[in-house]
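Hello forum,

I keep getting stuck at the same step: I have a sequence, I want structure tokens, and every attempt I make locally crashes halfway through. Rather than fight my setup again tonight, could one of you with a working pipeline run this one for me? It's a single chain of 318 residues.
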Amino acid sequence: MKRIAILTSGGDAPGMNAAIRAVVRTAIEKDIEVMGVRRGYSGLINGEIFSMDRHSVSDIIQRGGTVLRTARCEEFKTEEGRKKAANVLKVFGIDGLVVLGGDGSFMGAKLLSELGVSTVGLPGTIDNDLAYTEYTIGFDTASNTVLDAINKLRDTSTSHERVSIVEVMGRNCGDIALNAGIAGGAESIIVPEKEFDVNQLCKSILSGRLKGKMHNLILLAEGVGGAEELARHVQEMTGIETRATILGHIQRGGSPTAFDRVLASKLGYKAVEVLMEGRSSRVVGIRDGKVVDLDIKEALAIPRKFDEELYKMAQILS
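Reply #2:
Ran it on my machine without issues. Output:
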């Protein structure tokens, strides 16, 4: 392995820069040349490739987003587009490719590996929806961003004696809502993995009001959706002023937490080792506190298990 490249694809996540830094510096230490690819698979097809050195990744570990930029690419979904990408890598003399992103990005890496490109995927997504790894890069930071927001919303919710419904990201995975909800002391946590009864929710709010509780904080995962509609329904049913707040892309930004920086560094380091060992179509993750690598296809086939015990605990503590 003489020369590798790295790209970031799909949605950005805090900690991506820490992973880029780890890949670049590990490879250079092992006498491997590193190339950066701007704008994901789109940039790969267009040949937006440049040489990286240790200085290229100086002062980025604390920055959110991705210095390599990211983009969606419809052309890469075609066989012709993927062949073009593989040819570009060949022209630049690139032996291996590190792909930092989510499940869609990983499928792209797998398809490139079928064209003779050695690939390794790093889990960069705030959603924490990749079952093969306990944590994805960016999840912890996003959860803390939500926590900071709901701490502030609780202040104004208390002052106005209202119900606050906060919609958070995560696609069809409720991990951000569940973890931030527990940490923020939410009265209710609504996730796509569990059915909820809006009438029971309203009953709980009214019951709390009778006991002297003058505000309520509800965390709603975007996979369930409809924060505005739910707020209107709750207000109509209870007669209590109810506001919806959709946090949106604020959850993707910001300086990554120490946890995400260390996780990204460990996984980036491991990715280079995997390529050096001559293995391809792999993904790197963390299980039982240890860094592991698996076949991409096998990893994506693992069914995601919702943490029932954590959800049960959240219900009790609320």
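The mean pLDDT is 96. If your local run keeps crashing, start a new thread with the error log.
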